[in-house]
From TrEMBL:
Assigned keywords, A-Z: Methyltransferase, S-adenosyl-L-methionine, Transferase, tRNA processing
InterPro entries attached to this UniProt entry: Cmo5U_methylTrfase, Methyltransf_12, SAM-dependent_MTases_sf
Name used for this protein in its record: tRNA 5-carboxymethoxyuridine methyltransferase
Function: Catalyzes the methylation of 5-carboxymethoxyuridine (cmo5U) to form 5-methoxycarbonylmethoxyuridine (mcmo5U) at position 34 in tRNAs.
Provenance organism: Alteromonas mediterranea (strain DSM 17117 / CIP 110805 / LMG 28347 / Deep ecotype)
Enzyme superclass (EC): transferase
Gene field: cmoM
PANTHER family: TRANS-ACONITATE 2-METHYLTRANSFERASE-RELATED (PTHR43861)
Keyword tRNA processing annotated: yes
Length: 247
């Protein structure tokens, strides 16, 4: 826990990097898409590492009771103005490993958290162990397989040869990208049932003309929606998403 990466001191930069870009808008839109079929009935939900609360706000706006947690007090201070007007949202400042009431929720949301943790597979195990049977986990993470593919396209062969470990860790670069198939296998080994899987940004990050990420955003979004659950494209998503159910 002490070596997990949190965003105190860079909350503004974090928010701008996530939601002030086409990559952030696209990621959020696609995550809302894949969650939609699992939000059809009233739920009690908890978002782990929910940051500035954009996904929490979306789930709450659909009528669900949501608890937002994050380890960064700075990031949560940015969430408060967005969420405080809603009476079906509670905000808690805590690390993932400190959450002691996961069994109270029908839906656990953990998006773009694992890659910042010192022991991401231990975190998956913790979540599974503490969820109630029949509850569902919406899990997304930075995809190491897509990261390698992108660096090969960019010609970063020395970086790949060194295991894609930067000499100096940039604070907004994930410290622990995870291979998608490895995570799927691990989740199934714990007893999770995979209900759905999707790539998030299967095309956006590979575009040769990056100006098209903005000028052709609607066409790009349509393409992502058409193919992001289909192999082989889903495995190339810069983020990978799973809906898991505890048996």
């Amino acid at each position: 826990m002490k070596n997990d990466h949190i965003f105190d001191g860079i909350a503004e930069k974090f928010a701008n990097n996530i939601y002030g870009t086409t990559k952030g808008r696209l990621r959020h839109t696609l995550l809302c898409d894949v969650l939609a079929p699992y939000l059809a009935r009233p739920l009690k939900a908890i978002e782990i590492g929910g940051g500035t609360g954009v996904m929490t706000a979306h789930i709450a706006a659909m009528g669900h009771d949501v608890v937002l947690t994050d380890a960064s007090s700075d990031v949560l201070s940015k969430a408060a103005p967005l969420l405080n007007a809603s009476d079906n949202i509670r905000i808690r400042h805590q690390y993932l490993q400190e959450i002691d009431d996961l069994a109270a929720y029908d839906l656990v949301v953990c998006h773009a958290v694992l890659e910042w943790l010192d022991a991401p597979f231990d975190a998956i195990d913790f979540i599974h162990k503490n969820m109630k049977r029949g509850a569902r986990l919406s899990l997304s993470f930075f995809n190491q397989d897509a990261n390698l593919f992108a660096n090969a396209i960019y010609g970063n062969f020395d970086y790949i040869a060194k295991g894609m470990k930067a000499k100096k860790q940039v604070r907004l670069n994930p410290k622990q990208p995870l291979g998608a198939m490895r995570v799927v296998d691990y989740c199934e080994s714990l007893g999770f049932k995979v209900l759905d899987k999707a790539g998030i940004r299967c095309f956006h990050d590979y575009m040769r003309d990056i100006s098209h990420q903005n000028s052709k955003f609607d066409e790009l979004l349509a393409l992502e929606r058409q193919y992001h659950k289909m192999p082989p494209y889903l495995w190339l998503g810069k983020y990978f998403h799973l809906i898991l159910e505890k048996g």
